[in-house]
Amino acid sequence: MALLEVKNLKVHFEIEDGWVKAVDGVSFTINSGETMGLVGESGCGKTTVAYAITQLLPTNGYIKGGKIFFKGRDLLKLSMRPDGRLDDYNEKIREIRWTEISMIFQGAMNAFNPVFKVGDQIIEAITLHKDVSDDEARERVKELFEFVGITPDRIDNYPHEFSGGMKQRAMIALALALNPSFVIADEPTTALDVITQDRILAEMLRLQEQLKMAMMIITHDVSVVAEVSDKIGVMYAGLMMEVGETTQVFKNTAHPYTAGLLGSFPSIKGKKKRLISIPGFPPDLVKPPSGCPFHPRCQYARQACQEGRPKGVEVELGHISYCHYAKELWDELRRRE
Ligand code: SF4
After folding, report:
1. Mean pLDDT for each consecutive 10-residue tract of the chain (337 residues)?
2. What angle in degrees, to the nearest 10, is found between the helix axes of 194-211 and 134-148?
3. Is 97 in the pocket of ligand 1 (CB under 6 A)?
4. What is the pTM of this model?
5. Which one of 135, 139, 161, 229 has the minimum C-beta count within 10 Å?
6. Whose C-alpha lies nearest to ligand 1, atom 7?
7. Which residue among 292, 306, 327 has the greatest number of ligand 1 atoms within 8 angstroms of its CB, and so is best to mutate?
8. How far is residue 245's CA from residue 318's CA, in Å, rounded to a whole number?
9. Rounded to whole angstroms, what are the CA distances from 246 to 38, 60, 187, 227, 231?
10. Whose CA is nearest to atom 6 of ligand 1?
């Protein structure tokens, strides 16, 4: 049984102009101890997927379909109201959130309250969820600091006394405070310089291996997922375009959008190639294009692409492309190599 199974998840936001179909039918699984990278351009729905899993959607967010199973439990059943909104104060979800599933939020650099000591903020998170004394929680924070590479005597520092890399490590410590089996990291290294980014990623991998937890790393940077993920999901316009093991998606790309995304990132290994950007812009999700949402930007688009939404095609074991012509394109892209 997969640790997390997301099935045909649909999350729409109500705004003045109508409904934003932020996530419109996304499926994937993550096994225990596995790391999945969720990639795609900004606004493609990656963070919305994370907020649906952790049940932290804003009040204008509605679940319009699908299921989220965690350790076999149907999470949406626990907290979904009849209108599709989530009750984020639901007791059963609060028991799971942070203790079983935790999250390193986007913009972690500013996530700590500047007027409280970093250590106290983590102590509070522990004592809110666990029946332990402040002293016990303080010892746990020192342990966590050591674990993530911060000297424990920094426990009484304020956020402004930490560097960017240290704040990020402290955020990781906060996410690990209650030994969750699944951690979602939303753009965990975006605001960091490349050297610190590399160190933090290495640290996250070390912790993940040591703690045997599963992770989902959300990023627009494919080089990050290439480095740390066992599998990759590529999203576009609220839909999954391609999902598979990292080596499958990188070496045997089977979707035009993934090919475009990979072609627009430089590689320091292998032959030098001209970088090619994907023409056009992501669509307005209030009025997404008919059929395959990538068709206005896809060089392979044909009439059928405007008519029906592509179903998943398994091009090799566990490697799925949501393209009408996945098999043909798979051959075509292989011929070009
Ligand atoms: Fe391109 Fe059509 Fe495939 Fe969509 S379904 S990616 S438009 S070829």
Report:
1. 95 94 96 95 93 93 96 90 83 86 81 92 92 94 90 95 88 90 88 75 82 91 86 97 95 91 62 66 91 94 94 95 91 73
2. 120
3. no
4. 0.89
5. 135
6. 295
7. 292
8. 7
9. 11, 34, 18, 9, 5
10. 323
